[in-house]
Amino acid sequence: MTDINIHPMASDDYDDIISLPHHASKTHQRMSAAMRAAQFAPFAALTGHGEAIRQTAEDIMIYTNISMLLSSDEEY
Fold first, then answer.
1. CA atoms within 13 A of residue 3's CA, in its CB half-sphere
2. What is the mean pLDDT of each run of 10 residues along the chain (76 residues)?
3. Do 29 and 35 touch, CB atoms closer than 8 A?
4. Which H, E and C letters describe 13-49, residue by residue?
5. pTM over cut 0.85
6. 20 burial via Cβ count (<10 Å: 0-12, 13-18, 19+)
7. Vertex 23 angle, CA 12 and 42, to 5°
8. Euclidean distance between the first and the last CA atom of the chain, given in angstroms as a whole number
9. Which helix (H) or strand (E) holds 73?
10. Residue 20 backbone phi and psi in degrees, to 5
């Protein structure tokens, strides 16, 4: 079986740099994993939106319960 590269030059593209050491800045400290993760965290553009959804759901549940109670009283 022969190795098939998706890109014909895939194995040769970076041969000149693949074994070089990883660059480390002399002026900036390495960023912690937590700080790196924070960069990719979702942006909270809708601050308070989750709470509004929870409150609406609670209001609907209360309204539904009251409606059920009132309709059961009408049956008697």
1. 6
2. 55 85 92 88 74 91 84 64
3. no
4. CCCCCCCCCCCCCCCCCCCCHHHHHHHCCCCCCCCCH
5. no
6. exposed
7. 95
8. 81
9. helix 49-74
10. -75, 150
- Which residues does 11 contact at the CB level (< 8 Å), separation at least 6? 5
Which residue do the tokens 């990719």 mark? 40
Would you state the structure tokens that stand for residue 49, as one six-digit string?
């939106």
Task: State the amino acid at position 1 in one-letter form.
Answer: M
Tokens of 50: 């989750």
Q: How far is CA 18 from the centre of its chain?
A: 32
Helix (H) or strand (E) holding 61: helix 49-74
Cα separation, 41 vs 17, in Å, equals 32
Q: Within a 13 Å sphere around the CA of 27, how many CA atoms are in the beta-carbon half?
A: 0
